[in-house]
Specification:
By secondary structure, the chain is of the alpha/beta class. It has helices at 10-22, 33-42, 62-68, 84-93, 105-117, 149-160, 168-175, 185-202, and strands spanning 2-6, 26-30, 47-51, 53-54, 57-58, 74-79, 97-100, 124-126, 129-132, 137-140, 143-145, 207-210, 214-217. The protein has 2 domains: 2-117, Rossmann fold (3-Layer(aba) Sandwich), CATH 3.40.50.2300; 124-217, Orthogonal Bundle (Arc Repressor Mutant, subunit A).
């Protein structure tokens, strides 16, 4: 499970990062609205943990950013505002939870776990194609297909950004833990696996190569 922490208080940001990683979560951290917006655009998150007041914007506005990106991540707002009106506003805007500062980390951890356990359905359905990121499963016309590892993650990322051109660099940054340690040709290998194990047997095209720019999810489109 990948979590984005958006908190401008450096010590709290570090505490959340270290604490969540200790419990097995993959964590990215941001100290500003603009950096969080950028990360949401290139990566898929299961949950966003955002402070309300940021130096360049309001964390609650990240709710709209997630919606615009068609990102189904849950979002929990952290806030020093202890009035009822602020909590109601955040929830009405689409926040999945609202936690007042200061908070107990164990309680926060429990609420994150509950939200991830009962959160949004991450299944992607496009025509007859169904991609289940949580189960790493692909179903086409009631037939399950085998595609695992990085090729599956590349397919999922492109499907979540349907009709958008995604560069190799963006795919590397979104999927590989240490993108600077791998070469862009690993993307070509993953795309080839998708075409061999998914497109060719089903006689469909799922990914279009855009010369010098990247790739685009193009299903449904007959081969």
């Amino acid at each position: 499970m990948r979590i984005l922490v958006v908190e401008d208080e450096i010590s709290l940001n570090k505490t959340l990062n270290e604490g969540l990683m200790e419990y097995g979560y993959q964590v990215d951290c941001s100290e500003s609205f603009s950096d969080a917006e950028y990360l949401i655009g290139i990566r898929n998150y299961d949950l966003v943990l955002a402070d309300w007041m940021l130096p360049d914007g309001d964390g609650v506005d990240l709710i709209n950013v997630l919606k615009q990106r068609n990102n189904k991540a849950s979002i929990i707002i952290l806030s020093a505002k202890d009035d009822k009106e602020s909590e109601i506003k955040a929830l009405k805007m689409g926040a999945d939870d609202y936690i007042k500062k200061p908070f107990d980390f164990d309680i926060l951890l429990a609420r994150i776990g509950a939200r991830l356990r009962f959160g949004n359905n991450n299944i992607i359905k496009i025509g007859d194609l169904e991609i289940d990121p949580d189960e790493e499963k692909i179903v086409y016309k009631n037939k399950e297909l085998e595609l695992k590892g990085k090729p599956f993650e590349v397919l999922t990322h492109l499907a979540r950004h349907i009709d958008q051109i995604v560069s190799k660099e963006q795919l590397l940054d979104a999927i590989w833990e240490e993108p600077e340690l791998v070469t862009p040709n690993v993307i070509e290998v993953a795309i080839n696996q998708i075409r061999q194990k998914l497109d060719k047997p089903l006689n469909i095209n799922t990914i279009e190569t855009i010369r010098r720019r990247g790739y685009r999810f193009c299903f449904p489109k007959k081969a």
